[in-house]
Amino acid sequence: MEKITDSEILQIHYYLSNNSHSMDAKILNKVEGELLKILEEVSDILGLEIYIETFALEEGGIKSIYKFVNKKKHRAKVIVVGSFLASILGSVISDVISNSINTDSETEKKKNQLLELQIKKLKQDFEKDSLDVVNVDSENEEELVVTQELIDSLAIYISENNKVKISKSKFYTFLSKEGKIEKVSTQELNENFEPKSVEKIVPRSDFKYFIVKETVVEPEYKENVTLEIVSPVLKSNRMSWKAIYNNQNITFKLKDDDFKNLILNKNLSFSNGTKLICDIETKQKMNDDGQIKESGRSVYNVSQIIYTNGDIVDLK
């Protein structure tokens, strides 16, 4: 168990072949850019206010050294997680948790909710059973001790985040493009830049386990939903319909050919407020930040029309 300090230091060591001490600057910049994205996401998840100090690269391959300083110094119960940020970040970068993307938006939402609950619980644990609280001076500042088990739990939860997976994937993808790199490692340092943890090494042969090869997101399909029509398209063209769904304004493509033909042959009329009972498919895509976004909707299997006067037309 480690005592909390006001800051933590993490060293990223890029081991190079043939005792080299230089590598492609563009690749290194991209690699460290993804590293900072991971740090920002970790800080955001934990609700921390962190600023980063970086030190000159050292030889022995190439070593990047980062110092993470919590802006809320001397408030022990606030900085407890931030003071172990180097340990959390080191584990997130060097441990393989899962290299697959969570593609179901509903599942991802539930995981995020679970993550928030777990972090909230962990913070409560920090303040209760898992902490040894000691008054260290006359101003009643508190020095806290935390278990590695809780740090590991946080690292696992954070590693399941899509944004983190995407940035970590890019981190290792860029490293793979530098032929000189044989392995990369993370290690925590103390305030004297001396090792305070075991070096976690990832050999080049393992880079592939961190890389997400595919980010195709399966569409979301829901049956027997109710759409309140705002703007129907009664002519045979490709224009989108407009409707209200789950209290939101949406547009969709009508893909039910039988219903299209019925509209044309029976000369069906629609007014604002007319409702359709149907199936709806929502296409999804993932952006570069690992967020799943809706990218279009289509309607199939229209089974009922419900008019504003209460009349119901069954179509199936």
Describe the SSE topology.
Layout: E1 2-3, E2 7-16, H1 25-46, E3 50-58, E4 62-70, H2 76-79, H3 85-94, H4 105-127, E5 134-135, E6 142-143, E7 145-146, H5 148-159, H6 162-176, E8 181-189, E9 200-203, E10 220-231, E11 241-245, E12 248-254, H7 257-266, E13 275-286, E14 292-306, E15 312-314
Parallel strand pairs: 12-14
Antiparallel strand pairs: 1-7, 2-4, 2-8, 3-4, 5-6, 8-9, 10-11, 10-13, 11-12, 13-14, 14-15
What features would you describe in this structure?
The chain has 316 residues and is α+β, with helices and mostly antiparallel strands. It is built from 7 helices and 15 strands. The strands form 4 sheets. It has a 5-stranded antiparallel β-sheet with strand order 3-4-2-8-9, covered by helices on one side. Strand 14 and strand 15 form a beta hairpin. It starts with a strand and ends with a strand.
List keywords for this structure.
elongated, 316 residues, 7 helices, single chain, alpha+beta, five-stranded mixed barrel
What is the compact description of this entry?
With 316 residues, the protein is α+β, with helices and mostly antiparallel strands.
SSE pattern, N- to C-terminal: EEHEEHHHEEEHHEEEEEHEEE
Low-confidence stretches: 74-80, 129-145
Work out the helix count: 7
How much of the sequence lies in strands comes to 25-35%
- Structural class of the secondary structure composition? alpha+beta
Number of strands: 15
Spatial extent as radius of gyration: 27 Å
